[in-house]
Design a protein that fits this description.
Length: 343
């Protein structure tokens, strides 16, 4: 009853939040509060014969052929050392009394992303996605099911539009950098996979655990701007696909002149190709257009857009000299050592 009441009150709560003076511009695009709520769901993943459960949230990405495609977090459907969930159950805000069995279409550990498929429930709606990053200070609303007690809403503002956040508790990954959007909303366990929406009801990010930083009163989301490509790659691949995880093997930090590479992992390609303190100025893939390294987030996402076998050429500044280094990307799922020096 508590869960059902929360779901029934959610449209009115969303509407009141969106109508706060100065919080929302005149609605000319995006989704209505009711449509936004009907794009939400809760997730229950069971492992090892049902003895271990993981609770989370999900957002409907699209509705097609009487099927619903949903987005949630990878760590909601994977548990170390048990592996992927044996069964996944979804309850939709549009049909809260009926649990739906979900199929795991694929995962992308690099974005803490899992894509699910279920029969489409009646009256469900798909989320309206926003492909641009919000600005610092923009109002946002989180819709999720913290504590497993049903979908609820919380309002706040964007604290940082993007940052590289190191998460220590994702399955199989000791320390995972995630391109994240930070907001001043406090949520609890079960919110992972929920939606972060702008004042027009457009999905701007997929909520994730946030790791240790979540203890400081913030919530985090993977920006939708960086999720489109992996989502479509999963949908185009055979069911159950795990996208390759490609990383540099070095910590990336923004500077005024480029992206500094440091804390280089021994044994990685970065250990051979880069020196501690190198400033990465630009990069190109397979001899294509050279793109400036405008931020650590942008550089990481450029690397993640590669496929195994792609050649990446870095332009770096080292001790006042400009030089280049060619690397070949390889598949290193569950492994940070994911770039080799080209021969």
């Amino acid at each position: 009853m508590k869960r059902l009441l929360c779901l029934l009150l959610l449209p009115a709560l969303c509407l009141s939040l969106l109508l706060i003076p100065g919080c929302a511009p005149p609605r000319e695009a995006g989704a209505s509060p009711a449509d936004t709520m009907r794009a939400m769901a809760t997730v229950e993943a069971s492992f090892s014969g049902g003895r271990v459960r993981e609770l989370g949230s999900a957002v409907i990405y699209t509705l097609r052929d009487e099927r619903a495609i949903l987005l949630t977090n990878y760590h909601v459907v994977a548990e170390e050392p048990l592996g992927l969930a044996e069964t996944i159950s979804v309850c939709f805000a549009a049909d809260p009394a009926v649990p739906y069995s979900a199929t795991l279409l694929g995962v992308d550990a690099a974005h803490d992303l899992a894509v699910l498929e279920t029969p489409a429930p009646p009256n469900a709606a798909q989320a309206t996605l926003r492909d641009s990053l919000p600005a610092m200070g923009d109002p946002v609303i989180a819709l999720a099911a913290p504590g497993g007690h049903g979908l609820c809403a919380a309002a706040g503002i964007v604290s940082l539009p993007q940052e590289l956040l190191t998460v220590y508790d994702l399955p199989y990954r000791a320390a995972t950098p995630l391109t994240s959007l930070r907001c001043d909303i406090t949520l609890g366990d079960g919110a992972s996979g929920g939606g972060l929406f702008d004042s027009e009801g457009q999905l701007v990010g997929l909520l994730h655990a946030g790791g240790r930083e979540a203890l400081c009163g913030f919530s985090f989301a993977i920006p939708v701007a960086y999720l489109r490509a992996p989502i479509e790659a999963i949908l185009a691949a055979p069911s159950g696909t795990a996208l390759p995880t490609l990383s540099l093997g070095a910590t990336l930090t923004d500077t005024a002149s480029g992206v500094r590479a440091h804390a280089i992992e021994p044994g990685s390609a970065a250990y051979v190709a880069l020196k501690e303190g190198d400033i990465i100025l630009a990069a190109s893939i397979n001899g294509g257009v050279t793109q400036a390294a405008t931020s650590a987030c942008a550089l990481r996402e450029l690397l993640l857009s590669c496929t195994p076998g792609d050649r990446v050429t870095f332009t770096v500044s080292r001790a006042g000299k400009k030089l280049t280094s060619d690397l070949t990307m390889i598949d290193a799922f569950y492994n940070h050592l994911s770039i080799q020096e080209a021969s």
